[in-house]
Every structure is written in structure tokens, then in C-alpha cells.
Batch of 2 targets.
Target 1
Amino acid sequence: MNDVDFEGTFFIEDTSDDDFVGFVFGYQSNAKFYVVAWKKGPQDWFNKAERGITLKLVDSATGPGPALRDALWLTGTTPNQATLLWHDGSIGWSPNVAYRWQLHHRPDIGTIRFYLYRGNNEVMDSGNIYDDSLKGGRLGLYCFSQEEIIWSNVKYTCEDGVPQEMFDDLPQNLKDQVLNTTGISTRSLFTIGGMGALDRSLFQEPEGENGNRASNGKPRMNWVQKPCN
Ligand SMILES: [Ca+2]
């Protein structure tokens, strides 16, 4: 399965708009993917978009067009377009601030977890989100009606293991599945081309404008490794 950890930094220079910045993963086509999107403020347009971060499963019967556009805007589920898997409306993004995101996707146990950091502070933790619809796919960046976004230090790792915090929150049957799955534990690190020099260090942060310098919280480097044969 395509276990993946995906991380990067959002930095929005625009001070006037309040729309979406995000990324996609498990991307299989322009009609089938997961999308994480963060809206600065609530807004009624085609329908209501709330402030905060959403994770949606897009499985669109129509593909790109007005119906999918409306479904991506709505903070909710739209039949035959998109399913809302998680929403945290606690914060919107602020301009000229570097935010670090970290996503874990473990398709074999259908578990997803998202973290957001501002500087050294963890400002959001999705908790475990369970969906096994998409078993992997491409990664990418996402915006909707929002300009002047800088994504930086974007990278992914393919990690054959489950982060401790995710593991601890799994129901027993999934814990058993993790522990009973035989496989070879491997660590491989890839970087995706982005802006500026990418560092292989997992938690090296870019320097933002106005002297903002984001740095991640404590690296989550404790893993529950599957037993090796
Ligand atoms: Ca806009």
C-alpha cells in the first residue's frame, strides 16, 4: 500500500482575500482524490463555506464543472460529488504567517491524520480520520479563489510504519492489523521540486517575510514498526 507522509509550508501574502489554500493527496484523477482546504473566513457564495480546515473525499460523477466547484466550496457533503470527512473551524489563516502542515496517510488501515503548526506551536490536530476509499495516488497543491500563496519546503516520505500517536488512537482491530502485518520496514525520503532550495531535513523551515520563521513542533519520530520477516 502507499503509505505516505506529506508536509509543507503555507504562506499567504495576500491581505485582502479570505479563500482556500490547501493540498491534495490520493489523487487518482481530477474527479477522485482527497483534498485538504483551509478557508480564512466564512462566506456565502454558491453555498456556505465555513472558516477552518476541511478534509473531503472527492468522488465526482461529473468531474470538473459547476457541480464539483460548488461541492468544493461547501463545508459539507454533496451527494455524487464530495464527502466531508473532517472539519475544524477553530482558526482561519493569517496573512504573512508561515504555517507548517503534516499529513499521515495509511491506506491499508484507512487512517488519515493532519497536523498544523504555527512556529513551534501545534495549532491543530485532526485526530484519526477513517476512510479507506482511496488507496493512494498522486500528491499536489490546491487553491480555490485565493492568490499570492507560497508553498514551500514541500516533501513527502514513504514510511512503512504508523506514527505512535495515530497508533495509540486506533481501535483494537486496526492495532492488531498493524502489528500482525508482515512487511519490510523501509525508510525512504523524497523531495518534490518546489521554491528555493529544499533541505533533506524533515523539519527545516523556510524563512518567511517580516522575519517570520516557522519551525515545527517536536518531530513525531516515534514509529510503531511492523514486524519484519
Ligand atoms: Ca477569492
Target 2
Amino acid sequence: MSALPGSIEGALTTGLDDSPVLPAPADLPPLTEQTRLEAREIIARYPVPRSALLPMLHLVQSYQGYVSPEGVALCAEELGLTKAEVGAVATFYTMYKRRPTGRHIVSVCTNTLCSVLGGQRIMDALSADLGVHHDETAADGSITLEHAECLAACDYAPVVTVDYEFYDQQDVESARELVAALRRGEKPHPTRGAPLTDFRGVSRQLAGFNQYEDPRAAVDAPGNYEPTLIGLRLAEERGESAPAMTTGPEDQPADAGEPRDTVRPSGDTGETPGKEAADARVAAADTPAEKAGAAGSHPDAPEPSGRSLADSDDGTDTPAGSEPGTSGQGPQREA
Ligand code: FES
């Protein structure tokens, strides 16, 4: 996704003097003194000015819909950075756009879980409806379409976001209706979260300013948490619980939550309580997978192949050897 230094896309963003720069769109609103004042307000929030760069880039997008060469120059001037340094940051993150975006940005998760549940079909349908591919904007300027990597909402798959607000558990038809409504100028309420504005509005929010004319509008809608909680409910019904978070059976506190079928150590086998409990977990496992998992966490389980803890004792990357030269990295001994 990131443009390589010196590429045309990189040049578009950085606006370096010796790089080809496409003219800004004729209808691009200029950055004003107000933009500069707000940039300085952002800078004042941080102990080190350059830390303000990320929200400043969102601020530029809130005015111009993308990180324009003019925006790169403003950030560089205010922060005492070169345009190349600002461009390097702007081209690293996918949330910074290098071409003017549409009124809304529609992101379709096509990562594994969403994809197997229909995410790619949604992407293909929207692409056909809008006549665009990834990272392109419909001719009417309404929508920029992009495919997205995992949006961290796999329990609601397939997921679509509009201006980074979630529309959960979509299918081809619901996603097409959503996009059609957006093109009509409507703003369907996200499945959860705050009301939808537009790409420039959410960019303003990401810059640290309120995007709503009425701040009371920024109220999260009650969400449907069922997909997130279903695993917990099933576990409760089946009487299952997760093992305590410990570094090993020996560290497990006496009152820690016990996994299903765990048998309290009897203390009469001659083993440590940790080993006895681990034996019991292996014996109680129902399935081969559970048995393998229990065996793997047993204190007597062999070290996984690869580097052992002993290797780290000498503070170097040289594997331990009993004599000089045996590691293959020390001086070769005379035969
Ligand atoms: S795979 Fe789509 S949200 Fe995780």
C-alpha cells in the first residue's frame, strides 16, 4: 500500500520540488490560516512537536480529503521537518490518502474470516456497482472503495466500514443497499458507534476536534454484542472455563480458576502439585487436540525445537558448545 520513495505516488504526496507533481484538483479548498492555527493547537498538545504529525495529517484530510502536497508542506513547515520526512509517514499508513477521496470511504474487509463468509463477494459487487476497483473513487465523487485488512471485528464478519464506522454482518444485498443510500445522500446509522458524518468529518475527529455541530450527537448507539458474547455463553452452558493465565503449572495460584475436568492434586503420588495437576489434565482431555494441548503444557513436555533457554545464558547468539570452536563460530582448533 505504501508508495516507494521516488515513485510517482510518493511524489504526489511529498510534492518534492524535483518530483513530478500533478496539479491539485480545481475545486480543492485551500488550506487557510485557520488550518494553520488548528495545526498549532495540535502541536501544543505534545511535548515533542513532531509527535503531532499523525493528527496533523488527519487535519489536512479533513480540509482537502487527502494528504495534498500543500498539506505536506504545511506539516513540514510547522514541525521543522522536510517534506520527504512528512511524505515518508503519510505514505506508510493506509488511512492517509494520496488521491482525493469521495464523500465517503467504504472499506470492505477481505481478510480470511470475512472473505470466507462473503467479504470478497461484497467487494466484487460494490466494485461492479460503482465502476471502480480498490482505492478508486466513483465518477460522481460519492464513494471511494477500498478493500481492507482485518478490521478487528471478526466476530461480526463480514464487516464493512463507512468512514471507519462499522456496519456488521453484511451480505451482498445489504452492502449494496448501504452504498446506494450513501449515494442518495443518506447516512444510515452504523451498527454500533457514533452517527455517520463523512470522510472529512471523521478526519476532523481523528485530528482531535469534534466533528459534530452538536457535540451531543457523538453518542454511541447501543451495540448488538451477541456475536462477541456467544462463545462465553456456550462456555457457561458447557461448564467450561479457561485455564488461569500463568507461566506454567508450577506458578498456578491455589485459588486460580480451574479448567474443565481438572482434578485437584492428591499429594500422594510423590510428584509436585503442578505435575500432578498436569497429569490429571492430560488424563481428563476428551479429544486428541485437547490431549495434545494438555501434554504440551505439561512440565515434563520436551522443549520445543529451536533455540533453548540455555542458549540465552551467555548473552550472545552463539549456541553453547563445550569447547572452543565447537559452536562453529569460535576460532578453529588446530587438529
Ligand atoms: S477478518 Fe474481517 S474483521 Fe477480521
